[in-house]
Amino acid sequence: MKNSIYIIIGAVIVVLIVIIGSITPLISILNPETGVPRNTSNLIIGNETISIPGLQHDVTIIQDNYGVYHIYAQDNHDLFLALGFIQAKNRLFEMQLFKLTAMGQLAKMLGAGYSNYDRFQTMTGAPLTAEKDWNIISGNVSVNATDRLTYEAVTAYSEGINDYINYSISHHVLPFEFKLLGYTPGYWSPVDTFAVQEYMIQTLEFSDDPLLYSLLFYKLGNLTNDLITPFSPIPQYYYGGYNGTPNQYVMKMSENTYPVNATVASLAFSVAKIWDPLHIFPPNPTDHSNEWVVSGNRTSTGKPILVGGPVLGFSLPSIWFQVQLVDPSFDVYGVVLPGAPIIVIGYNEHIGWTLTDTQAISWGTFFFTQTIMNGKYLWNGTYYPVTSYEINGFTVNWTNLGPIMATNGTTALVMDWMGNRFSNDIGALLEVMNATDWKQFSSDLEIWKAPYQNFAFADVNGTIADISPAYYPIFSSNNPIPYNPNAIMPGNGIQFIIGSIPYSMVPHSVNPADGFIVSSNQRQVGPAYPYWFGDTMTPSPGFRAMLEESYLRSHSNLTVEDMMNLQDHNYTDYEAFLTVPYILKYMSTYSNSTVQAGISMLKTWNYSMDANSRAASVWFFTYMYLFNEIFHTFLKDHGVFPEYRSVLNVTGMGGSFPNSIGISSFDLDLAYILINGSARPFSNESITSLIANAITEAMNYLSSQYPSGNYTWGHFYGFVFPSLLGVSQLSIGPLPRGGDYNTPNDASGVGPYNWPSGGQSFTMILNFSNLSDSYGVYPGGQSENPASPFYSNYVDYWINGEYLPLLFYPSSSSFPKAHVLDVTTLEVIG
Predict the structure, then answer these.
(1) Residue 377 is inside which H or E element, if any?
(2) What angle, 0 to 180 degrees and rounded to 10, lies between the N-to-C axes of helices 687-705 and 574-586?
(3) H or E element in which residue 477 lies
(4) CA–CA dist 773, 763 (Å, integer)
(5) Cβ neighbours of residue 273 under 8 Å, at least 6 residues apart?
(6) Average pLDDT for residues 281-306, to the nearest whole number?
(7) What is the share, in percent, of the chain residues with pLDDT greater than 90?
(8) For residue 398, which phi and psi values (nearest 5 degrees)?
(9) Per-residue pLDDT at 17 exceeds 70
(10) How far lies 800's CA from each of 237, 306, 358, in Å?
């Protein structure tokens, strides 16, 4: 009864908050039979039985006392149908929003103001590729077992979503967002699921970096090679090895940038300005995920421990939905995405896995110039017809390389994005969900093409591994050395993709002698790797990986609790650890009182970005102002600013200042400058003068914000969890917490004007001595309804660095009654 009262009151409050000022007719919203109050019947906690068309057998769904659903079915069809139904019951509005975003059809639901986004999304080719992928899979059902499994899972899942849409309409329990918008959700199709796959590839592997690189090179020339170095100037940990003498062919290729002319530069700038109108790709922040795996010879139990913390943008509801899926073929636990019937991160009774982004090879996005004349493109001296598609009311033109993004006269800028190549990621993960060992796991991932991901792995037999499967392109060129693919390339047949790095050569490590593997967005392979694998622009600067490697290398008999503390309570900024001693050395005789006030705090600091630390604030803002003083002045002096500032307003710590971007190379450069004591070639000022100015600016800013001197880091660093509706009253935060860009609890951003709105989206720790003693949490809740007690119930756990047990039981009958919140039975009609 108490839950029912809470839900009804909550629903009324939500309605009052959201509809104030709305033009939606109140009489339809507040109708007790069909309006928002009716939604409360969908939230009352208790056992229920629902008759579902299409089921072959009854399905039992247990919701545990943390809100997680455990689905027990008798075959694959019913399992995935039930997943679609129960996920839609909790997240239908989110799923529809994902679908429309992915398909470039947001204006259908949200109005004409979103047509610019729809045009951009359609232009990228993602909606077209989704349809092509599904058609390929449908055509392969009789000859390819993975495609057949994919077809069956996606079809049943779509059926379950549509069953819930019909149920919600007939029972007047459509999510209130649809009622407020006056929109009826469209039925789900398998193409929509593959559009979600495309959307996630975009979220993780889609970038305009080559455009920005070419704009920098257009102004800076070969100085760009000093700013964005082919390899890190600071020693790194490469999980895949090859830490030797740089491969000279790769080095020359990285420094051989195609010199664009004024026309191409203007095209690059025009596309960069319209890139991602809603700022969706990639999510804010980037470069921040963490994963490591420890072998049994370093743990207290003698069995591996796997740790994951992939970073994505936050929202309420969260991007993740937590489930266990059980039938005669599957028994797997983890998190699924809105609109895709696969465990993306999770484990079964034999193996476990987690993911981070490789951030390699220009985010899989390449740009070429091509000559277009009279509806034809030039290739190797011959003109061929441009292919035109009519999609979403827009005309999209393609050459042999990909969609034409912009034209000026006969010059076109064409994008070759790896997300537009066929990749059955859904099928790969369906196979992974049932894998039993490393051999099967790695074999299942051979078909994975994009996005570029690191898969950390462990199994109950003691194997630990990491692999970065993908279609990493190899470039052919008419030149002895190909042009740098991280910039715009000539595309009339002069340079093009001829294949990809063989699967046996993609970065990987199995049971290394060190007894651990860390893959936290740093570059996976060292300078001796024989293939071009990008430069320092895209991977993380590597300071988090250095911290994690240092900790694991210096500890043994590690426990789950140790891993929790490293993942969620170790706030050491490893870049500060490396560079602050040099700052103290340079400034030891500097007599300015303001500077010395800052230096005195740094002298006794332990490099930890604790929320109650004033020294942490001094370090952060000193770093940020020093960054701007060196690099912004350099960019102004060479004409990059102000002309290109709107797309190249780079700031430190991954773009932590408002309205800015992050470029990893710059953060590496600044660390190198501090260690070596010279800012040349970017500045001729002495390092002492530069640091003194930065400390003075930092101290003045902090004193202006907190004249009492109480400028502790928690006043500037914390997290916000925005409502998917963009309604502040339904959002949470900012909530203070320790950490920064360089710590495991990491994000770009700083308050009060740019609070981080993303972070470790699902922290998971798997204990392979006893998988029932595993833990995880994501910041959000299982329900998208703000009136539900499961709307944001995980946020407090996450913000406090706490975990919830992952309840994993093989059958509904074995599930402890003490952990059962309610049971839903989906029954066969008739």
Answers:
(1) strand 376-379
(2) 110
(3) strand 473-477
(4) 15
(5) 646, 647
(6) 82
(7) 90
(8) -125, 145
(9) no
(10) 29, 21, 28
User: 630: which DSSP letter?
Assistant: I
Structure tokens, 675? 């260690």
- Distance from C-alpha of 243 to C-alpha of 527, rounded to nearest angstrom: 6
User: Model confidence at 10, in pLDDT bands (50, 70, 90)?
Assistant: very low
Each as own residue / partner, the long-range contacts of residues 372-375 (CB below 8 Å, 24 or more positions apart, any chain) are: 372/399, 372/404, 372/407, 372/410, 372/411, 372/412, 373/410
**Tokens representing 453?**
């991901």
**Of 74-78, 227-231, 272-276, 466-470, the least confident:** 272-276
Mean pLDDT for the chain? 93
Copy the structure tokens of residue 119: 């045009």
* Residues 483 and 490 sit within 8 Å (Cβ to Cβ): yes
φ and ψ at 763, to 5 degrees? Answer: -85, 125
β-strands 290-294, 305-309: how paired? antiparallel
Residue of 763, 791, 806, 772 lying closest to 310 (CA atoms) = 763
The answer to whether residue 220 scores a pLDDT higher than 50 is yes
Full 3-state SS string of 242-292: CCCCCCHHHHHHHCCCCCCCHHHHHHHHHHHHHCCCCCCCCCCCCCCCEEE
Answer whether 40's CB lies under 8 Å from 12's CB. no
C-alpha–C-alpha distance, residues 182 and 97, integer Å: 14
**In the block, which residue shows the tokens 């110039």?**
369
CB neighbours of 445 closer than 8 A, spacing ≥ 6? 428, 432, 455, 467, 469
For 147, the enclosing helix (H) or strand (E) is helix 145-170
Specify the pLDDT at position 498.
Answer: 96
Which residue in the block uniquely carries the two structure tokens 């220009």? 362
Distance separating alpha carbons of residues 620 and 627, to the nearest angstrom? 11
DSSP 177-227: HHHHHT-PPPPP-HHHHHHHHHHHHHHHS---HHHHHHHHHHHHGGGHHHH
For residue 170, CA distances in Å to 15, 34, 43, 92, 151 come to 22, 10, 16, 15, 28
Give 572-629 pLDDT, tens digit per residue.
999 999 999 999 999 999 999 999 999 999 999 999 999 999 999 999 999 999 999 9
Residue listed under structure tokens 């798997």? 766
Q: How far apart are CA 107 and CA 100, in angstroms?
A: 8
pLDDT of residue 194: 97
Which two tokens mark 397? 């033109």
Q: Which two tokens stand for residue 122?
A: 């359609």
Cα 487 to chain centroid, rounded: 23
Q: Please state, in angstroms and rounded to a whole number, the distance separating the CA atoms of residues 54 and 187.
A: 16
User: Given the DSSP bridges, would you call strands 69-72 and 321-326 parallel, antiparallel or unpaired?
Assistant: parallel
Q: How confident is the model at residue 191 (pLDDT cuts 50, 70, 90)?
A: very high
Tokens of 492: 């009339």
* CA 443 vs CA 365, 418, 468: distances in Å: 26, 21, 13
Which amino acid, residue 565?
A: N
> pLDDT per residue over 227-267, tens digit each?
999 999 999 999 999 999 999 999 999 999 999 999 999 99
* Neighbouring residues of 789: CB distance < 8 A, sequence distance ≥ 6: 3, 6, 7, 45
Q: Estimate the share of the chain in helix, then strand, then coil, as percent rounded to the nearest 5.
A: 40, 20, 40
**Token duo for residue 655:** 């773009």
Tokens of 468: 């970065």
How many other CB atoms sit within 10 Å of the CB of residue 278? 12
Cβ proximity of 284 and 748 under 8 Å? yes
Q: In terms of residues, how long is the chain?
A: 830
Q: Nearest Cα to 469, choosing from 389, 358, 574, 380? A: 358
Judged by phi (left if over 0) then psi (alpha if -120 to 50, else beta), residue 381 lies in left
Query: Which of 699, 679, 704 is CA-nearest to residue 689?
Result: 679
Nearest in space to 453 (alpha carbons), one of 355, 352, 346: 355
pLDDT digits (tens, 9 = 90+) for 379-403: 999 999 999 999 999 999 999 999 9
Look at phi and psi of residue 679 and say left if phi exceeds 0, alpha if psi is from -120 to 50, else beta.
Answer: alpha
